[in-house]
Write a structure and sequence with these properties.
The protein is mainly alpha-helical. It has one domain. It has helices at 10-35, 37-48, 56-79, 83-103, 110-125; strands spanning 4-5, 8-9. Strands 1-2 form a two-stranded antiparallel sheet. The protein starts with a strand and ends in a 17-residue tail after the last helix.
């Protein structure tokens, strides 16, 4: 009964909490950007990246797609849908955000993102303990 109390699997709970936090971050970020999509892309993203080597069409495309990607990934992570794919895509999304921070010379903003990449990798690595999912990966047993 090591690691359990009243038949509660604390490993499963810990992994689920980490997945839910990542999902909530993505969901809130995506919804916030969707509420002011034009302002996010044209008021922040395009002007911020004007002086980088990235073409404007690429920045705009990324900016318009990002809120939808974040919202979908957030919902998938919270619910445990396609868990492994959602975690892998979340990690890649975090890496793309870190790349943008590096292009903007915002090196202090890279570390928190890399922490989330590590957290995503840890949840993905310890997936056998993630039992609170809707998709086929994981078990519904405590």
């Amino acid at each position: 009964m090591k690691g359990t109390c009243l038949r509660f699997d604390f490993r499963a709970g810990g992994i689920a909490l980490a997945r839910w936090v990542l999902g909530l971050m993505f969901l809130c970020s995506g919804i916030g950007k969707l509420n002011a999509l034009g302002g996010f892309v044209n008021g922040y993203l395009v002007p911020a990246f004007e002086k980088t080597f990235l073409p404007g069409w690429m920045i705009s495309s990324y900016g318009y797609a990002l809120p939808f990607v974040e919202t979908l990934l957030g919902a998938a992570l919270i619910l445990g849908l396609c868990r492994n794919a959602a975690l892998l895509l979340s990690g890649l999304t975090f890496i793309s955000l870190a790349f943008g921070k590096m292009l903007l010379q915002d090196h202090s903003g890279v570390f928190p993102i890399m922490f989330y990449v590590a957290m995503t990798g840890a949840v993905l690595f310890h997936g056998e303990h993630d039992r609170w999912v809707i998709s086929g990966k994981g078990s519904s047993r405590p």
